[in-house]
């Protein structure tokens, strides 16, 4: 059973309403230390989750003097947008760019910023930093429990072509089980009873996910730009019920051209923040972020 090592002492939470380029309202959640933050983490949530899943994690980051930001992706959490629908790639990239532009303006130029993508959120992160339109400065990137290039790995060329052309609105069930995410009963109950969770998406949304993958697996993609050379880490449990870790690490190695770091935490569940390694993961991610600011302090 997870036990909190120390209660948060200096944390306040707020929800900032951002206006997307098309006027949609996006909810950016922030756990902010009461004193000036020494670092910041922007979290990309997965398919079914949203910022509400980080109700314990956000305060722990803030208690480490890290401002912790989570955007409810369009159609998720309390952001605008149809449920079970992932918008086109241009909208996805634009929404995250709007949010991260606000984050950088909020924290200032001298605070190190880490981008942290969990599960499907890691694929959104990879697509964003490889897109030519994204120019917000960040100092580190973390891919946590992410099967990078999943659809490219599982589907052949003809299957990918069919998926890319599919404009259907029929729902596809992702087959997510709470017991694969966590072994802790109270977290399982939370996931199963979460009315805001997204458990299925339209068939055309899977085509969007495929196109997002193309941004970081296809070096000839017309909108692709090489991301900055920042410390980049792949984090996972020792095993994962959802991921082919070997396959994902191969994609990771190609993305970072063998410049990345791989870290394993001792768990066999998917959602590391709902396991016994949560506190260690938060403290590691906090330290990793703060280290990126040392050069500015010299």
From TrEMBL:
**Entry annotated with the keyword Hydrolase:** yes
Q: Name one Pfam family in it.
A: Hydrolase_4
**What species is given as this protein's source?**
Nocardiopsis alba
* Gene Ontology molecular function, alphabetical: hydrolase activity
What are the entry keywords?
Hydrolase
Positions of the Serine aminopeptidase S33 domain: 36-273
Task: Read off the lineage from the record.
Answer: Bacteria, Bacillati, Actinomycetota, Actinomycetes, Streptosporangiales
Q: Which InterPro entries match?
A: AB_hydrolase_fold (IPR029058), Hydrolase_4 (IPR022742), MAG_DAG_Lipase (IPR051044)
This chain belongs to the protein called Alpha/beta fold hydrolase
């Amino acid at each position: 059973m997870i036990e909190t090592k120390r209660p948060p002492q200096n944390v306040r939470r707020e929800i900032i309403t951002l206006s997307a380029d098309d006027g949609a309202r996006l909810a950016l959640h922030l756990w902010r230390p009461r004193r000036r933050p020494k670092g910041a983490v922007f979290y990309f949530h997965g398919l079914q989750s949203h910022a509400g899943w980080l109700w314990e994690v956000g305060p722990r980051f803030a208690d480490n003097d890290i401002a912790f930001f989570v955007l409810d992706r369009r159609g998720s959490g309390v952001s605008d947008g149809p449920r079970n629908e992932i918008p086109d790639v241009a909208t996805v990239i634009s929404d995250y760019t709007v949010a991260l532009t606000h984050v950088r303006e909020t924290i200032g130029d001298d605070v190190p910023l880490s981008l942290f993508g969990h599960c499907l959120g890691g694929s959104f992160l990879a697509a964003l930093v490889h897109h030519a339109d994204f120019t917000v400065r960040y100092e580190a990137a973390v891919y946590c429990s992410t099967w990078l290039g999943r659809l490219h790995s599982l589907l052949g060329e003809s299957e990918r072509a069919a998926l890319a052309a599919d404009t259907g609105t029929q729902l596809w069930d992702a087959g997510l089980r709470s017991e694969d995410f966590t072994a802790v009963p109270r977290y399982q109950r939370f996931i199963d009873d979460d009315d805001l969770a997204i458990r299925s998406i339209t068939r055309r949304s899977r085509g969007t996910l495929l196109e997002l993958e193309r941004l970081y697996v296809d070096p000839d993609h017309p909108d692709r730009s090489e991301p900055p050379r920042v410390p980049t880490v792949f984090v996972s449990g020792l095993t994962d019920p959802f991921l082919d870790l070997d396959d994902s690490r191969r994609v990771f190695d190609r993305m970072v051209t063998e410049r990345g770091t791989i870290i394993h935490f001792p768990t066999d569940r998917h959602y590391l923040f709902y396991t016994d390694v949560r506190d260690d993961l938060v403290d590691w991610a906090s330290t990793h972020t703060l280290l990126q600011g040392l050069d500015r302090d010299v």
